[in-house]
Amino acid sequence: MTFKQFVIRFAFGYFFLMIVIGIFNRVVDPAWYYREVEIKGFNAVKPEYLSFERTVKPALLKRYQPEAIILGSSYSEIGFDPTNTSFTDNGSLKSMNFAFARASWAEVQCAFEFALANSPIKRAVIGIHPGNLPISDCEKSFAPLRDFNAIEALFTYSALEYSIKTLKNQNERESTHTKDGMFFYNRARNPIPFFINGLKSRSSGCKNIPANKKALQPDFEKKLNLSGLQRMIDSAKAHDIELVIFAYPKHAYLLELEMQCGRQEAEWQNMNQIATMINSESEGEYRAWHFYGYNDVFAQPVRKTTGLWQDARHFNFEVGNLMLADMFDQSRPPTYARPLDMKYSDFLNEREAYKLRHPEFKAEMGKVFY
């Protein structure tokens, strides 16, 4: 064999191998981008999707052109089913959960701008943490929002590795997400220790604070930077989008711990600042809610069942369905949602009324920590 023949055969073998690998990766589709072949027991379960979501979700949004989107961090991604009938107006709006695990405020803001530029958005619901919501440079802050790279998805070693993992884990794991973007967190394990350990880590240094001493002195004069939220509202008005903003809920046990830490008053002041800005900028057109409350859902006893909660911050979609109904069902008053500008004193009155009706609340919470 001459050197020339060797080079030709090697090149032919290499390109043939690349074609086979590309076809294999496309059929297995570990990134769940192509969605052309799904065979139960072979590739129907997509346990590796979480590794690709920041590049695949934007590409899927451009392909599917949703009209209603859910934005936020893992709280929104786990907690909201985008096919909820209240959110989609009984299925009349194409929908997608466009939230991302561990997303920062910058990423949430830039995901919103990306969606406006690439899909005919009519409705958006956005989860926030009450605090500074500054403007972001989206070119730098969310670089992963770019065109899906088919070369990387089909012909790289890492893609092949993910395909092999997908095949191996068909009977061992479940898909991390639903087709429309909801993070379907694994609920098969016993979640109670997970919930309790998370609460205990948040309560460190707060349980033994004397009643006459606050751990943190709230700065009521502090002015928040809300320039990013203001730009979001301006963009929504310019595109005639129904924008609904809410502060993420917390389990009542966590609310109690934060009161012991002296954190709640400052957070409430932040919510009021945000609500004032939203009302001013949108002239009351856009709604803003919080879900801080004491009731059968948000004060669910942990030792009885945690079917509604993953931990004290991550709520399951059963809770999300109740929240979406409150935010979008105009035929009835909300059950759990409260206006973001609700007075702190009214919240405290609701808390005390609940604890009077449920004297077991303190005992149940005590079982978690003592």
Structural notes for this entry:
With 370 residues, the chain is of the alpha/beta class. The chain has a domain at 3-186. It contains 14 helices and 6 strands. The chain has helices at 3-28, 53-64, 74-79, 105-118, 138-141, 150-155, 157-168, 192-202, 227-238, 252-260, 264-282, 317-328, 344-357, 360-369; strands spanning 68-71, 95-97, 123-128, 242-247, 287-290, 338-339. A 6-stranded mixed β-sheet has the order 2-1-3-4-5-6. The protein starts with a helix and ends with a helix. The model is unreliable at 208-220 (pLDDT under 50).
Helices and strands in order, then pairings?
Layout: H1 3-28, H2 53-64, E1 68-71, H3 74-79, E2 95-97, H4 105-118, E3 123-128, H5 138-141, H6 150-155, H7 157-168, H8 192-202, H9 227-238, E4 242-247, H10 252-260, H11 264-282, E5 287-290, H12 317-328, E6 338-339, H13 344-357, H14 360-369
Parallel strand pairs: 1-2, 1-3, 3-4, 4-5
Antiparallel strand pairs: 5-6
Helix pairs in contact: 1-7, 4-9, 9-11
Content of β-strand = 5-15%
- Strand order in the largest sheet: 2-1-3-4-5-6
Reported for the largest beta sheet, the result is: 6 strands, mixed
Q: Helicity, in percent?
A: 40-55%
Roughly how many Å is the radius of gyration? 24 Å
Unreliable stretches (pLDDT < 50, length at least 5) are 208-220
Distance between the termini: 80 Å
| Tertiary shape | globular
Spell out the helices and strands N to C.
HHEHEHEHHHHHEHHEHEHH
- Tally of strands: 6
Which structural category fits the helices and strands?
A: alpha/beta
Number of helices: 14
The average pLDDT is 86
